[in-house]
Amino acid sequence: MTKTLNIALAGNPxxxxxxxxxxxxxxxxxxxxxxxxxxxxxxxxLQADGYRLNxxxxxxxxxxxxxxQEELVARDYLVNERPQxxxxxxxxxxxxxxxxxxxxxxxxxxxxVLALNMMDEVRKSGKKIDTARLSQLLGTPxxxxxxxxxxxxxxLIESALERIHGDDSRWKPLEISYGPDIDPVLQEMTDLIxxxxxxxxxYPPRWLALKYLEGDVQIRSxxxxxGDIGEALExxxxxxxxxxxxxxxxxxxxxxADYRYGYIASVTKQGVLVQRGHQExxxxxxxxxxxxxxxFIGPLLMVGVLYGMFMVTFTFGTVPMEWLEAFFAWLxxxxxxxxxxGLLQSMLVDGVIAxxxxxxxFVPLIMVMFLGIAFLEDSGYMARMAYMxxxxxxxxxxxxxxxxxxxxxxxxxxxxxxxxxxGARTLRxxxxxxxxxxxxxxxxxxxxxxxxxxxxxxxxxxxxxxVLFWITIGSWMTALVVAWVLRNTIxxxxxxxxxxxxxxxxxxxxxxxCIHTWERAWQYAKKAGTVILAxxxxxxxxxxxxxxxxxTLQDFARQRTAVQSALPAKxxxxxxxxxxxxxxxxxxxxxxxxxxxxxxxxxxxxLESVTLLAGFDWRTNIALLGGFAAKEVIVSTLGTAYxxxxxxxxxxxxxxxxxxxxxxxxxxxxxxxxxxVMLYAPCFVTVVAMARESSWGWALFSMTYTTLMAFxxxxxxxxxxxxxxxx
Length: 727
Known about the structure:
By secondary structure, the protein is α/β, with parallel strands linked by helices.
């Protein structure tokens, strides 16, 4: 018995779909209506390779969102009848516009073959389309056709049968990014739909979430009948709609369309349109891209933009940062005067204010940096940076789509490694995904930035912007070199093509920039006020207990008594001042001894014999150990450690001043610590995310190899630096 295969024929109106249908089926066709609607249905068949191919001519449509009866019919047929394949007839003269429907088929997951129709007109116009390159980038067969003459119809059927019988014949939805305003809520809605199993037997969860954001009437009506899940999705859709209107003066539907066209533009610009006709309309975005994405000029401009952003950050952020540091110093003084000496005062002043205040002191600099990042994202330039970096990444065995995980993780300082690691799931190749997972945490995330700002401001005064710029460059270079080593040793595998959406340029709105900046700064401050606060108190307790033995305390008390007893009977200002200095020295020795005797001090001191090779003293060790939990803790722990061990004049001023005054610190020490923080193990939350995306084995491998590499490089820099610049 001959097996029947159902193939749907789709395309935009006037793309030549009906002409191709007639060319394929001849007179063997019938006309009817789709069930429940009045839209005409054409159905025909042909014999090929022992199969009866049932060709269903879907109504011409521009999208799969239910704006019209034709679109609803086309979509319902695909979902309810589940044909083995869709042949999308594309007007090759308007390739980018016609590919918009193809992208939606791919997002739905249906197996697809593209028929580039009217290729005779394309050739006459002087254009040339590289169909092999287009097929490689989209991951779907592409066939050149001329429906009027029947050219390419046999190749079209052959490609369709190969796709049906091939390994990629299953429904596999395409996932593309829709930018920082859409992606988070899209993922949240997808997880909710998947958890509730809402229509997941018919539609991909992410596709359903997209339809909610696009205002699809049919899907929303289904949700309304489903009860709580529909109400929850409606609330989330309203929330993101209001956010987009306020920040970008647009709606989610428009953003989604822009990113789809950006995705298409990135495909066509990668050698697909080999030669363009002189009559082609050059849009504004293309004119700008001729300069900003130029092979040689583009990367130079990109480096200049990054360096300029760092200069602006330190130019406008330093003064308010000093104001904030002065405020926390004043607050510590007030709390000291209002609370009696003891554990409570120490916890509030040394643990909370010195710890959390040290992190919050960088909020002004962070806000200026976030403002710059928001401008790059909202204007559309961030995607161009990713597009240009693809040329570099391919050399080192990474995929072009690794760019966005790198940038999100902190490739432009201020990101977060957790969403960067999660973003690697969009890579098709498991090998390229794993290489991205293991190298993205090298980026200078927002948690590391306060450490770099602290050390850069303390030891490279006037050059802090340059230091942060080279830290960023160094992070990228390290990630690429390590990726190359991994891809040529333990993670060998073939490279896959790169596709990256390029949204059109927009002039960001002032309100949108302010809101995006405030949201990120608030997240940073909230983390300092919750997670960092809790960790600071825990670390303070480890730095406080156990207390010094009674015998040691009595010894310090006897030293104070001896100093006071030596004062002359007659008032002597000079002798009193000398005695005061000696008492402060004894207090400082006692505070340092107490910190060294604590659990944290003992651990830091135990490691010091090894870590001094890299210039890390016992206090630095404590801070770096805390950084395994969260990198911001490094700053808060240093603040607590110096607050608890410094007394008198040494306890006055900012943490930067205390580090500069400490003989154990120097520019070389600061450089060694910067290198270690830049490269050593990701924070605990990132490690968990890596384990979820790969395995605990790879996550633990990441912690181990990054820490060993970071420590080795820090030792090399410190030892060579001491040899070249002996103190």
